[in-house]
Amino acid sequence: MSTFTTCQTPLAPDRPAPASPHTLSYSLTLPGEAYGAAVARSAVAAALHAHHLDPLAQAAAQVTGELVAAAWRVAPGEDHYLSVRYRDASLRLIVYDAHAVHTQPRLAGLCEARRRATLRLLGAVVRECGGDWGFGPSREPGGGTRTWASLPHTGAAAFGAAA
């Protein structure tokens, strides 16, 4: 006679673990509409608050809004994907848009210049926070472009305190 066991689902703890900065990890699909930036800013602010990272909210809201608005400008009407993570004392924001990288070098250069100009304010905020940002081809199956910004905790908190 063989023993038959079932896969047991672990019981939920009586008290869930409180949210901490190190568990901040969210993803959100946004419509490719002008209001998407406001929705993204609100979602990021709520996530930061839930994870006790309120001092980063001002810099994060500015950067999030710029990332999503830039995605809307280059791929209006297409969904955008926002990823928010906190790792190694840095907040990392990534937006994926559907605008494919051009294969023709001249068009690619013009498009890159346009995207950089669109992200000028983002670049200034990220520099002020001591972070880094960039964009390039998405490695996602649908293609498109991945634009990201990394905000070190100390710099982003100082940005919020200075304003």
Topology (SSEs and partners):
Layout: E1 25-30, H1 36-50, H2 57-74, E2 80-87, E3 90-97, H3 105-118, H4 120-128, E4 132-137, E5 145-152, H5 153-162
Antiparallel strand pairs: 1-2, 2-3, 3-5, 4-5
Helix pairs in contact: 1-2, 2-4, 2-5
Describe the structure.
- This protein has helices at 36-50, 57-74, 105-118, 120-128, 153-162; strands spanning 25-30, 80-87, 90-97, 132-137, 145-152.
- By secondary structure, it is of the alpha+beta class.
- A five-stranded antiparallel beta sheet has the order 1-2-3-5-4.
- α2 runs antiparallel to α4 and α2 (57-74) crosses α5.
- It is globular.
- The N and C termini lie far apart (73 Å).
- The model has no long low-confidence stretch (mean pLDDT 90).
Task: Give me some keywords for this one.
globular; 163 residues; 40% helix; alpha+beta; five-stranded antiparallel beta sheet; 5 helices
Largest sheet strand order? 1-2-3-5-4
Structural class computed from helices and strand pairing = alpha+beta
The outline comes out as globular
Give helix % range.
40-55%
Give the amount of beta strand, in percent: 15-25%
Please report the number of helical segments: 5
Order of helices and strands: EHHEEHHEEH
